[in-house]
Amino acid sequence: MAKKQAKKQANKKTVTQDFSKYISWFWKLFSGGILAIILVFLLASWGVFGALPDYTILENPKTNLATEIISSDGQTLGKFYFNDNRTPVGYHDLPQNLVDALIATEDARFHEHSGIDARGTLRAFVYLGTKGGASTISQQLSRQLFVGVASTNTISRITQKLKEWIIATKLERQYTKEEIIAQYFNIYDFGNNGDGIRSASRIYFGKEPRDLDLKESAMLVGMFKNSSLYNPRRNPVGVKNRRNVVLAQMEKYGYIDEAVKDSLQKTELDLRYSPESHREGTATYFREYLRAFMKDWTKDEANRKPDGTKYNINSDGLKVYTTIDSRMQLYAEDAVAKHMPRLQAEFFHQNTPERNPTAPFLDLTRGGVDSLLQKAMSRGERWRILKKAGKSEKEIRASFYKPRKMTVFSWKDGAVSEIDTIMKPIDSMRYYKSFLHTGMMSMNPQTGHVKAWVGGISYKHFQYDHVKQGKRQVGSTFKPFVYATAIDQLHLSPCDVLPNSQITIEANKYGNPEPWTPGNDNNEYGGTRTLKNALANSVNTITARLMDKVGPQPVVDLVKKLGIESEVLAVPSIALGTPDVSVYEMVGAYSAFANQGVYTKPVMVTHIEDKNGTILYQFTPESRDVLSEEVAYVTVNLMEGVTQSGSGARLRGKGRDKWRADYREVITGYPYEFTNPIAGKTGTTQNQSDGWFMGMVPNLVTGVWVGAEDRAAHFASITYGQGAAMALPIWGMYMKSCYEDAELKISKDDFEKPANLSIEVDCDKYKKEQDSNSDTPNEDVPDELDF
After folding, report:
1. Residue 580: its H or E element
2. DSSP secondary structure code for residue 748 in this structure
3. I need a labelling partner for 566 at 20 to 30 A (CA). Which of 55, 147, 405, 519 fits?
4. Residue 740 falls inside a structural domain
5. 109, 117 in Cβ contact below 8 A?
6. What is the mean pLDDT of residues 439-448?
7. Which domain holds residue 120?
8. pLDDT for 42-80, tens place per residue?
């Protein structure tokens, strides 16, 4: 018995020893595993498996930030970027429903962990990822910022995951939870140039992130799974399904109730797609001018980063604050979009091959048209590309006569459109030359701030800017400069009278090689006209008499002081507007009349900030006295006559627009009904190649030009080819919209009258004064000037 008991105890002792051995081995293995894991993490943190970002990089992640163009009323006009259209926002700019959607879908325990979700990681190991992944928001951010796309190699994937975990814990130590969420939204690429939540919300819904509603937020959060797959433009059904998953997650975790989930899951995406590209959007022509401005600014050695390197306008996150008012810019673009298709329809109607075999060109033979197109061919982009590709001139020319598929510009239902067609490149050149273009600029004459800038009808198809880049003959819009010079030198009144008869300025008198005898457009002569009546009706003979009296050089001197840098020859014919001048220059020059004789250089940029809000550039106003207050006011008074009884009087009209079935306009009346003081001048060049209107109220000067690319393409008659028909309607529609927006505070007041005005502008008073000083008063008109 004793032996059996001893044997039993011995066996028990052996079992105990064996079990203790296993326990010992277990703890050794477990401790070794823990130490191995710690060692692996230490090795990873020391950079053995690849460099990790240091503290500085974590504080300032190297993400490309787009330069933002900001309007004077705080709206984003556009951005400059290369690949990343990214503008970061702070956590305070994110709506709560957006944050809730993210946490419910991507990381339900986000506020409970410190970068790594142990429970989620264990679940992922046990179920091999079949019941959800383990990546937290912090891990996903670390992957996007520093780790990159996961490798297909198993070892590399493991090391990448280690780095991801380490960086995630560092992010959690250095940033608040709110900062991590904001960075995560800012770094993600939502597709279609939607880099970051701000760009995405503007592109897909046309609004700022803070204004996103619940279902919009759910859609954007759903795109985190794969923005390429869940692209709302290419895969709306899939995106809707994914959005509904996000809504279900929000209901699961108590962020919304079941009723809200069910109702929203039945709704459509309701996209308001607003692409943000360099050739689309608002103020495209202005933005391209600004790009050149910024490139010049970055080249200046005075404008350098603290480390001495140049700023990159595509990636350094600059903020450019401009003078453009987004509302006025929209009204300007809308006015162009309303008028130009109507005018173009009439132009096409008048220039059919049946009516004009050389359409759209007039005054050219078929040989002349061919020569024009051949010259344009060698200057085009197609020629440049084929030449660079090594093609011979013969091969290049032959390619212009081979039909090919192309998408061309068109107006459709009063809006910019495109047509897919098959056309020979040479025919497409002729087609594009048949379009009328426009340039328009609006500016505050006191501050010089440019409020609207429309350089053409479609930047995507026509990149040439007709505000600053283009220069065309200004026609009769040049006449106020002649009148202002005469008023300054001769102290003339708008009520003074000159004979309406032709005048010849002798050869060589002012350097002109031949005698110059200008005629009136309507060939009507005889009698007399007041200066105000003569300018209102653009009477050439009166302007020629004034030019003969003052000489061309003082007029040239004046326009140069008024900021016109284009070449203006000191010859008598400039009186009728022969110089080529830009809309930009003309608006700046006219602004001096509204600003009591003070020229203020147009301003487009008020200041520039870096991504941290530090001011890098502050504009300095440039202004100079050019005319006395009296001369400026009298000139304005003369131009008021243009809109009271002259070529601009249709601005006062109470008629209505009439339309033919094909949308062509019958120019018989306009429903503008302006009653406030307006000074202006129409301009029409020879053969109706260019139509101008310059219009002013006390705090806004706006210039409009309309014409074709080639001067040989124009209206056959003055009916549609005059400035009052081509350009004035754009001004009228634009100003009507501006006046309807009371927040803009566009003036309806009288132009400010100088306190000591010595020149009489009231013709009734002027006549009485003349009568009282004359023994034989003229009962009909003031005395004729002895010119």
Report:
1. strand 580-581
2. -
3. 519
4. no
5. yes
6. 98
7. 57-64+85-277
8. 544 545 445 555 545 555 566 788 899 999 999 999 999
